[in-house]
Structures are given as structure tokens and as C-alpha cells.
């Protein structure tokens, strides 16, 4: 698959990821192919164990055992990732309670990212990014245990964005949060993508969240992409694969029952 | 007719370094042979309410109430020893994550047998038969294999079915389910809810279903209490949840993304300080209300 480099944010072709060797080998992702245009938002949907998070981990280099081709912003990725890669791609993890160092203040977390990537003027940048993610200046010297789940996720997003990447990998960024807080974080992500022209690759088990955030999506089941569809197809309930229909039914049925 | 359970003016406080924090503030509600949902955000006091019924609030937490009556008997007046007979035997509880509720070094069959033998005083053989039958009622296809298995060999959905089997085997009158399906995938969630629903109906039990998921609660329960900051702010029939009137409930409902109503930005819940101060409402069912 050849694609125009200036337009493609992420291109995955024939990606396989496995864990273990010999008899214990588990194929977590089998022959995954998809492309995410630059500046757009793509969703990976599926149940736990379907391999959707594994794809994100393979892109960031957190799983060493993979084959196939991963291209990010026109660069084909090899075994290891260099610092320039992490300048362009950052990840936000699912659990904001586990992804922040408990003994580092917000200021420490943010300045470390800046230091690692050789940015100047940390003071101005930190003030700026905290404002961007909707936290007041008083949060700068707080510890993670002084923050709520939603505030922590804002800090995690600030940590990812402070080095001005072009691509964000979002691994279930709101599934640990209440619906009211989820709305705030999703709005924040929508606004930041618009302002900065970011590319999102988002993993979620919640079809309505993916439907809200993404224009295109891939549905995964047992390591394989079983269906690719656009959000319009999803909204019109035009999914063709039985597994997608099952997922879709499970997520809209609740409401339909209520309406009756 | 006396309800199965009646909670009057329950308050739960925790002493913290920065003063007293009230997790539950003066709530009253009743439970008949129905499915009662309690919804709210994290920190709204819903789980603490569930635990208070079983008197599982440990010090430095303080539980105060006029009464918590199980079929007319006040649980607050029971000794700790008598209370142990109530837990599991008459009221049992299913927690969110089966991984933390099952003993990891004990075979599943033995754990369920133990629960049954403790409450029914039955022999080993009878307990085994009963356990296998129970595993079958929660739609586990090969009960013999599961009986011999350890909890880590089970998936989340299987684990939660096992918990349901274990909690229902002493035939309690009330089941408290605290976010029983939040850790499960949507497709598995539905199966587990259906199993629980069928068993609760068959046995004419009362169910308290605690969840943060408004859609699940409105589809699955008969009556709903909506909690905010330790108080019940609204109570309504579950199927009318979408016609709720309290701004908090409406705000929660509106903040969910919907496939059929695409918007660029979601509505964000605007909290009003007045909700904190306003007195709560009573969750005691009127005659003819609920199921």
C-alpha cells in the first residue's frame, strides 16, 4: 500500500503482534491494516482482549515482538524508537490513577518532559499548557493525590501535549471517569485537535464515545480487524459484520428499552 | 405490608485530617420485592450506602441512623455476632471486581461449597451437588471443570457469574450488587445482567443495584434513587428516568455522547452549589409505587 506521505498521519500495514514463543505463542494482532489521514481522528473498537490497545503499544514501541510495517508521519518505524519519534507521537493511558508518578508534582511531571526534549522556557510553557487543558495555575505544584480523576487525566493530556506532538494515541482516555467528567475530557480533546491540527488514534470499547470523536473506525475481534466503517455508517446502523452488529445492539439496546 | 428493608435517616461520616466528611447525609429509603437502582457519580455515597446496610463501615467511619430494618427487625440493635448471621444469609453483596472478591488460592467449587455449608450446615456431598446445580443456573456450560478451577483461570464475565452463584446459594432475601458489571465488556454485561435478573425474579428477592451507568439502571431496575453529594436528590420510576426533573439528573443524561444525536461539543454538567444545600428527598416507596 503506497500512500501520499504529506497526507498520511499513521499507516499500518500487515501488522502482527504476538506474545510468547513456541507453544505459548499468543497472536494478539493478526494482519491489521489501516491508515489515518493527518489531522483526523480514527477509532479502534472492540472488547477486552481484542488487540486494540496492543496496536497502540506496538506503535509506541512498548511491545518488541511485531512484524509488518508501521509508518508515522511518513517515517517507517524500525525496532527502536528515537527521541524524534516521541516528539511527534505521545500516548495518553487509560487509568489516570496509575499513569502519573505519585511522588512527583504536576510541575515536575511537565518539566521533565520539557527537559528530555530540550525545550526552553519551561515556566511559560507550563503556564500555557495548564491553561490549555483547563486547569488553573494553582494546580502547578500539586501532587497527584490532591487531584480528582478528571484533573489527573487533564494533567496526563498536558504532559503528552507540552512537547507539541502531532499525533496522540489515546488508550481509553475516559473509561475510568464518570459521564459528566467524560464529557469535559472529550470536549477538551475535540477543542485541542481543532486548535493544533492533531491526529488522534483512539481506542475504546464504547461505540458512542468513538462515534462522537472519530470519523472512521475499525472494529476488532480476537486480534483481527473484522470491519472498517465510517461514523455515518455506524449512525445509520449499517454495520454488516455480525460482531459489529452485536456490539452496536448491546450499546443502543439499553436506550431503546427505556424508550418503550 | 412492611417492606423488606427500610432505612431511616442514615448518615455516614468519616473523620479526616481536614475535619469530618459526610459521605452519606440523612437518607431514607425502602426496598420491597423489587429492583432498586442507586445511581450517582463517584463520591456521591452510593457504595457507602450499600455497605452501611450490612454494617460494613469500619472505624474511623461513623454510621448513624434511626433504624435499618430488615423485615421489621432493626439491624443496628443486633450484636456483631448476630450480624454475621445476617450477612450472606439474609443479605448478600456482589462487588465490582470478581478478581478481588474470590480467594485466589482456593478452588472455585470449594469456595462456593464453603458458603453453602456455613449457611445451611449441609454435608460435603450435598454441598457439592448443590454447587454444581447452582453453577448451571448461572449458565456455566461445564460446571465440573469450573468447580475444579482456580479464579485466575476465569474471565471477568465467568468470575462475576461465579460470584452471583456464590452469593445466591444461601438463598438471601436481599442482594446488593455494587457495580457488578462495570468491569465487563458490553456484550458480556448483558448476559450477566440477564442471569441476575432471572434469579432475582424467580426467588422473589429484593435487589439493590448500585451503578454509575444511567442507561443500565434505567433498563434494568424498577425504581431509581439518584444520589448527589451524599443525598438522594431525586427518585423516580426507572423507565421514566429520561423524564427526570432534577437539573443534576438532566445534566448527567445530557453529558453522554449518543450515536443518534451527533454534536460537536457535549453538554457539560454545570454544578450548582444549591444542590449541595438543598434537603434530600425520601426514597421510601409510596403505596402502589415501584414494582
Structure, described:
The complex is a heterodimer of chains A (260) and B (291). With 260 residues, chain A is an alpha/beta fold. Chain A is built from nine helices and ten strands. In chain A, the strands form two sheets. In chain A, strands 6-7-8-3-9-10 form a six-stranded mixed sheet, sandwiched between helices. Chain A has a four-stranded antiparallel sheet with strand order 2-1-4-5, with helices on one face. The model of chain A is unreliable at 1-5 (pLDDT under 50). Chain B is of the alpha/beta class and 291 residues long. Chain B has a domain at 1-80 and 224-291. Chain B has a six-stranded mixed sheet with strand order 7-8-9-3-10-11, sandwiched between helices. In chain B, strands 1, 2, 4, 5 and 6 form a five-stranded antiparallel sheet that branches. In chain B, strand 8 (174-178), helix 8 and strand 9 (206-211) form a beta-alpha-beta unit. In chain B, helix 7 packs parallel to helix 8 (186-203). The mean pLDDT of chain B is 88. The interface between A and B is medium-sized, with 36 and 34 residues.
Key attributes of the depicted protein:
heterodimer, A: 260 residues, alpha/beta, six-stranded mixed beta sheet, four-stranded antiparallel beta sheet, 10 strands, globular, B: alpha/beta
Largest interface: A-B, 36 and 34 residues
Write the element-wise H/E pattern of chain B from the N-terminal end onward: EEEHEEEHEHHHHHEHEHEEHH
Total strands of chain A? 10
| Quaternary status | heterodimer
Quote the average pLDDT of chain B. Answer: 88
Major β-sheet profile of chain B: 6 strands, mixed
Strand order of the largest sheet of chain A: 6-7-8-3-9-10
Distance between the termini of chain A: 48 Å
Question: What value does the average pLDDT of chain A take?
Answer: 88
What structural class results from the helix and strand content of chain A? Answer: alpha/beta
At the fourth CATH level, what is the homologous superfamily of chain A?
Answer: P-loop containing nucleotide triphosphate hydrolases
> What is the count of structural domains of chain A?
1
Query: What share of the residues of chain B does DSSP label as strand, in percent?
Result: 15-25%
Instruction: Compute the separation of the termini of chain B in Å.
Output: 14 Å
Query: By helix and strand content of chain B, what is the structural category?
Result: alpha/beta
H-E order of chain A: EEEHEEHEHHHEHEHEEHH
